[in-house]
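Lecture notes, unit on protein representations.

Consider one protein chain, 212 amino acids long.
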Amino acid sequence: MVLDKKVAEQTINYLTQINAIKLNTKNPFTWTSGIKSPIYCDNRLILSYPNVRKFIADEMTDIVKNLYGEKISIAGVATGAIAIGAMIAERLNLPYAYVRPEPKGHGLKNQIEGNINEGSSIVVIEDLISTGKSSLNAINALKSEGYNVMGMLSIFSYNFQFANKKFEQENISINSLSDYNSLVEKIESEGSLSKTEINRLKKWREDPKIWK
C-alpha cells in the first residue's frame, strides 16, 4: 500500500533518474523465479546518490515513526535493505539487526545478525517486494525467534495480488514508498509508450507467469 501519492511520484522520479528502474517491453528481464518481467528494479543503486539516499531514508523514517511509534526495533532484509534499514534505525535511535536469506553455513550459523531483545516488536525494512517469497522468509525467521513483527515497509513493490494475499495470511501489514501502479502512471503521463505497450504493462502485473 502506498501511503502518499506525492512521495510515490518523487520516489519513482528518483529511481528512474538514477536508472534503478529499467524498462524493456521487447526483451524482458528474467527473475530468479523464472518470471519474465518488462521491469527490473535495482534499489541498491540508491546508496550511491546522496540526495536520493537521504530522501528515501527520511521518508521511510517518517512512516515508521508515524505508523509504529518508538517502542520498536528495526530489521533490514539482506542484502538490499541492510544499509537503508540501518539508516532508519540510526535516525530513530533504535536497535537494529538484519536478516539473511538463510542461516550461515559456518561459525555461529546465524540467520539474524544483531542483538535485539527477545520478544521485541520489529518493523522490517525491505528494498523491493516482488513475489513476497524472500520478504516472508525474513519475516518468518524473525517470528521463529520469538519477535513480534509489526509490519513491513519497502521502497518499491510490484503490488502483485497473489503476493499481497500471502502477507494477509501471515497477518502482516505491508506499505511501500512507491509501487508498480505509480510507475505505470508516470510512464502513461509522459507518453513515452503507446497505449498498446501500456496495456501490456498492466496485463503483466495481473498475471506475470503467463505474460508474453
